[in-house]
Description:
The chain has nine helices and four strands. With 173 residues, the chain is of the alpha/beta class. The protein has a single domain, classed as Rossmann fold (3-Layer(aba) Sandwich), CATH 3.40.50. The chain has a four-stranded parallel sheet with strand order 2-1-3-4. β3 (150-153), α9 and β4 form a beta-alpha-beta unit. α5 crosses α8 (135-146). The protein is globular, with a radius of gyration of 18 Å. The relative contact order is 0.18.
Amino acid sequence: MFLLDTSALSALTNRSHARHTNAVAFKDQYVGQEQRLFVCVISLAEMQFGLNMYEMRAPRPSEADLDALHKHIQAAGNLSEPLDVTHHVATEQGRLRSKWACKLAPRKAAQGKLKGVPPEQWSDDWPASTLQITENDIWIAAMALTHDLTLLTCDKDFDKLVQADSNLRIMRL
């Protein structure tokens, strides 16, 4: 079973995407077995953010272009019932993020000054720029781990997280 990350969803729903043919061929392998393909709310949120940002451009994009993007997002959301972020996913995300931080910068992780700092601020020293991967990608990877799904992607960013957790399975389009 597979979790399609945002790049894979984009490739699947956008005919002009460079990997569209690969994405369609992958999906066609599972015709009649669509319950083996999953999306998550994080990917849908990323797509919605992109659409909203595009809508705010000046000059405003054409209605035809906006309609096409709406259809891409709708098609992505219709691929499966989106997986939600749960307590288990949140726990896995925190675990995966900390394992990657320790792998990436073990000295910094070991020397962190946390005494007197509220726990909600402990992650402030580890922004995406330091971790070299976006928060959303860590959430998506955590979703795949929690549900024991292979993560289908067009990106190499997730390869970093495999170094932190060998249970994370990645397949690239």
